[in-house]
Amino acid sequence: MRPERVDKIATGVILGLAGLVGLIILSLLIYILAMGIPHISWHFLTTNAESFTAGGGIRDQLFNSLYLVVLTLIVSVPLALCAAIYLSEYAPQNRWTRMLRLAIEVLSSLPSVVVGLFGYLVFVLQFGLDFSLLAGALALTILNLPILTRSCEDALRQVPYLQRQAGLGLGMSKWRVTTKIVLPAALPGIITGAILSAGRIFGEAAALIYTAGQSSSAISYTDWNPFSPTSFLNPMRPAETLAVHIWKVNSEGLVPDARAVSNGSAAVLIITILLFNLVARYVGHRIKQRLTK
Amino acid sequence: MDDLKKRLNQPSVESRQEWVGKLISYLAIILIGGLVGTILVFLTFKGVALFKNNGVSVWHFLSSTDWQPSHHHYGALPMIITSFSVTVLSGIVALPLALVVSIAITEMLPKKIYQFFQPLIELLVGIPSVVYGYLGLTVIVPYLRQLFGGTGFGILAASCVLFLMILPTMTSMTIDSLQAVPQKYRQASAGLGATRWQTISRVIIPSAKSGILTAMVFGMARAFGEALAVQMVIGNTTVIPKNLMESSATLTSVLTTGIGNTVMGTASNNALWSLALILLVMSLAFNLLMRLASKKGAK
Amino acid sequence: MQTSTALETKNLQVLYGEKHVAHDINLKFPKNKIIALIGASGSGKSTVLRSLNRMNDDFATVKGEINFHGVNINQPKVNVYRVRQQIGMVFQQPTPFPMSIYENVIYGLRLAGEKDRKVLDQRVEESLRQAALWDEVKDQLKASALALSGGQQQRLCIARTLAVRPEIILMDEPTSALDPVSTSQIEDTLVQLKEQFTIIMVTHNMQQASRSADWTAFMHQGHLIEFDETATIFMNPREKKTADYLSGKFG
Fold first, then answer.
1. Which residues form the ABC transmembrane type-1 domain (chain B) (predicted)?
2. With an 8 Å Cβ cutoff, are C161 and A176 in contact?
């Protein structure tokens, strides 16, 4: 066969297959959204979940998911940032540094069930945190740390060496140069990374079913004392998140309207993650503008 | 001048800042390193308890097909086989399709289309696995039931779900590695009279090989470790499946359903931790494979 | 001893890993002069310059002595930050920080803890005047430094270095990124500055060396070939390699 003919056939096959795959995936995405969006209402978002009767909402699950993201970021961002500063600014090129990098890589490849089980073993049982938001946040921190450390390190490395040099040449300490010159310049990249990672942990379920738990206690949104057991801010209460809720309702749930609740929840999950991505994109776009100005 | 001499030899505010800063950042990285060490040690200890305390031999655990914790039969082979089956099946289907989509996007379609697809792929990468599992439960399982009869639950359904889950990730990684091939290779090949397909098959794919391989291993590692999405559609029967349509169970699905139903320290609980240890070892193996794949490209 | 020595190197060697990039450099930099380091690219001149205030600490192994006021500053126990405050550095590319002109100039002072507005104001004016930038920017001190032209930015960086009041200023090809007009402005500035400072400058531009430098050191493949008064080096070089380089036979 002449090469031109082969080229035509290959092009046709590739475009055809790619189009088919794209179509299937796109239609599944649209299917989920189309099934779920009609079920999303103010009532659905602001009502308590029901265990045995239809008509329950996802208020607590949605709040728990968001709160868990906030708690996780509070723990993981400073830790990941400091580790990234070490790797990008201080780490000597030696075997020990390579070991530490390997450790982070190993951490990033752990399946989330394994992380969840470790969290169960250590945070829930050993530390006596029981099933709680805090235990869940710590498990999510383990999942989040490697990704976040890498994105922070990338953001720090993007800052031209010239800027550091200028500071060092004035007799500033490296730490000062890092916090006063490098960090502000890398901030948008760090924020983008944090938002993207927030999207990822927002939908995590496997690491949570044995750490944050699979059920929620009754909570009050008017009780602002984080130490009160019924306060919505109390990090020591067990909390079912949105993603866990979908799994729970479908695998052992008893609610008659499981399909409707799951459809709505899945759509809410996807839309929230889309929002996270859009915000991250917007922030990233803003950096570009600032740099080219 | 002696004053200057003294000043040069004495620590200053800057020295203190440097010391503190170095300490803080070093502590953070040591904490992460220590965490990884702790995870490995804890899970290993829990994982070998079955063999040390309950007298089950490692070989029996890995080779017996009989998993009945209530009768003290701890054979993990059915789950191992199922886990590998769903991983390999989904990976084998996802690799060529991820490659095809990536080639179409980077080499054939106009750039504008990529700019439209990129956020979409990012979104698909970010969709939680539970949603893919739910999709499997409500769309794929009923469809398979209609097509082949039976319950619809099983390896095939799980593979389909995993395929959907890892395809976006693998595609986006493959796109990255194709885009990393320098433009001059394409021009040089075209300049020698090669058709587009010749350029793609003889120049671009070979030079992006390590990236494509890494993407595949990464996708399969994710598939192997996925728990809930698989658990929702696999049927959860701990026997060696006779065909792809029969209900079975993976390491992860047994873990998710089992941990809550056993008492810490008992043999049946220890057996679950041994399954977790297999998962851990496999994730390390996948990690090693990925290193090998990316090293191959560096040469 | 008509002129005292500002800085002296003894058997200075620089290694990048296994690679020797500077061998046994012995130089005595006279005070209140402009000294040029010249040589082809890869001759090690920038490497030597950066070693003088220990900017190479992270990248290279520097052996030998660097004596400053009787202290060998090339020792780990010496306070490297104070060394750099005494021996400042201006780089090839202008590197203003993304803040106002005023804040750029007093950046080093602020870090040293100076808060008195009067002192800061006075130092800004003094440094900008010394760097011959005052007249151009005195009405826009609060404007962003990034809005200045390349030549202005480089003079701002010089002012920023001067504001810390160092004794010695190291300059690594300070005009290579600039146009000819800005270059000659900076050269004029340097001549003014040597009354108070010692300036050690790397340049690949031989005219620049002959125009502004009092002393010139010629380096070739990591070795110091010749160090003498600029007039002698250019008119009457002792070494054949120097003569070859100056006549453009290599480099």
1. 80-290
2. no
- What are the distances in angstroms from CA B296 to CA A59, A68, A270, B94, B212? 50, 40, 37, 22, 11
Which helix (H) or strand (E) segment holds residue C22: the answer is strand C19-30
Specify whether the CB–CB gap between A206 and B227 falls below 8 A. yes
- Residue A171 and residue C95: Cβ atoms within 8 Å? no
Considering the domain architecture, whether residues B231 and B112 belong to the same structural domain is answered as: yes
Q: Which residue segment(s) compose the domain that C127 sits in?
A: 5-246
Both B106 and B215 in one domain: the answer is yes
The reply to whether C94 touches chain A by the CB within 8 Å rule is no
Of B103, B123, B134, the CB nearest to A262: B134
Report whether B129 contacts B165 (CB < 8 A).
Answer: yes
pLDDT single digits (tens) B240-272: 888 888 888 999 999 998 888 888 888 889 999
Q: Which of A75, A118, A143, A214 to mutate to test the interface with B (most CBs of B within 10 A)?
A: A118
| Per-residue pLDDT band at B72 (split at 50, 70, 90) | confident
Question: Hey, is the C-beta of A181 within 8 angstroms of any chain C C-beta?
Answer: yes
Q: Side chain identity at A34, as an amino acid letter?
A: A
The answer to whether residues A120 and A213 touch, using CB atoms and an 8 Å cutoff, is no
Range of the domain at B75: 67-298
Residues of chain A contacting B254 with CB distance shorter than 8 Å: none
Pairing, β C61-68 against β C5-16: antiparallel
Given CB atoms, is A118 within the 8 Å cutoff of chain B?
Answer: yes
Tokens matching residue A203: 């939908």
- Kindly state whether residues B169 and B21 are assigned to the same domain: no
What is the overall mean pLDDT for chain B? Answer: 91
- Domains of chain A, by residue range, sit at 40-292
- Are B227 and A112 in contact by the 8 Å Cβ rule? The answer is yes
Cα angle A237, A144, B292 (rounded to 5 degrees) comes to 145
Assigned CATH topology for domain A40-292: MetI-like fold (1.10.3720)
Q: How far apart are CA C238 and CA C227, in angstroms?
A: 10
**Is A165–C83 a contact, with Cβ atoms under 8 angstroms apart?**
no
Query: For chain C, what is the domain count?
Result: 1
Q: CA-to-CA distance for B202 and B226, rounded, in angstroms?
A: 35
Amino acid at B178: L
Query: Do B103 and B247 belong together in one domain?
Result: yes
Residues of chain A contacting residue C97, judged by C-beta atoms under 8 Å apart: 163, 166-167, 181
B146 vs chain A: nearest CA distance in angstroms? 18
Residue numbers in C near A173 (CB within 8 A):
81
Question: Left (φ > 0), alpha (ψ -120 to 50) or beta: where does C248 sit?
Answer: left
Residues B48 and B134 in one domain: no
Contact C73 B8 (CB under 8 A): yes
Q: What is the pTM of this model?
A: 0.88
Measure CB to CB from residue C84 to each of A162, A171, A181 and give the nearest one.
Answer: A171
Sheet with C5-16: list strands edge to edge: C19-30, C5-16, C61-68, C71-72
* pLDDT tens-digit map of B84-94: 999 999 999 99
Q: What is the DSSP letter of C66?
A: E
Q: What is the ipTM of this complex?
A: 0.90
Would the CB atoms of B126 and A247 count as touching at under 8 Å? no
Residues B184 and B151 in one domain: yes
